[in-house]
Amino acid sequence: MRAAIVLITVASAGFAFGKLPPQTDAAKAQAAETAAKAAWNDKVSLYKTCLAMDRAADAYRRNLKAAGKDIPTPTTMAPCADPGAYVAPVTPVESKPLEAAGAHSPPGTATSPPSTNIPAAEMPKATK
Length: 128
Prior knowledge:
By secondary structure, the protein is mainly alpha-helical. It has a domain at 22-69. 45% of the residues lie in helices and 0% in strands. It contains two helices and no strands. It has helices at 2-16, 25-66. It is flat, with a radius of gyration of 33 Å. The mean pLDDT is 80.
């Protein structure tokens, strides 16, 4: 029984030390964008936490003032820094126009809309 367990362990150890293929450029760009987005999300979370702490401190001071107690001097801290909107640091991969991408679009541009306002009864009959 022990020999079977050792044999299975040794046989499966080869899979654990196998190499993965190298990442493609697209995968590397995707990983960089994901890391940048995660860093921005962290900054947004810190900003929201800072705003919540400011609101809590203001409420505390208001409650002390309403109770007629002395308000302690606030500790000076850096103001909350808004991280702004997310901007992707990685430029997107240049995409092909629809025609070059193999889309099924007509070769020419449309000169009129695909439908008209003429009722079906007034339209000329199509020849077969």
